[in-house]
Design a protein that fits this description.
It contains 3 helices and 14 strands. The chain has about 220 residues and is mostly beta strands. InterPro entries: C2_dom, C2_domain_sf, FIP_classI.
Length: about 220
Amino acid sequence: MSSLSPDEDQKWLPTHVQVTVLKGRGLRGKGKHGTSDVYTIIQLGKEKYSTCVVEKTTEPDWREECTFELQPGALASGGGSELVLTVMHRALIGLDVFLGQAVIPLETVFTESRGVKNAWYRLNSKTGKKEKERGEIQVTVQFTRNNLTASMYDLVMKDKGTSTFSKLKERIKGKRHSKEEEDSSSAILPGGYGSLVRMRQRLPSDGGGEEYYEDDEGERSGGVR
């Protein structure tokens, strides 16, 4: 895949978005000794991935990535595509516990960065719940264009009545990189981190059953959103 540079055509449109979950800080401790066994669910539309579980910490270090295919028009004004990151505590007994959630509007990120953005995002409570300090999560969002599907993508963009093109899945693997690279908010993301695991459970919007968890006040909820 190719990524956008400042000199490229302003009409450049990405076909995919690569998401790298780097680390968290200041997370709530819901396990023993004031720590949590933490993982993050990354969701765009009906597709979602999960990081590995980092045990006994409030400052997890994941450095894992995944790639989502963008639907035609996803980055257009009013497209409404949102990347949802839900941080959870893995419970050995009972339901997993919600720790916080960050919602990243992809249209805004693309308009501001035109290629790649590395930032810390505040974790918020569920909609309708009282806000409290939940920590932050560091995420890199990078837009890319797959030349194998670009021509099909352009055709769909010209004819919005056409159904979306078939998905091309890919697995991204790679080595970890230095702290200086991952902490730089202006650097282009270097090639591959550890790959995330795609979650196989269906979402409620896809006709599947609800996914249940507990929030950090002991209340039971359905679904990750």
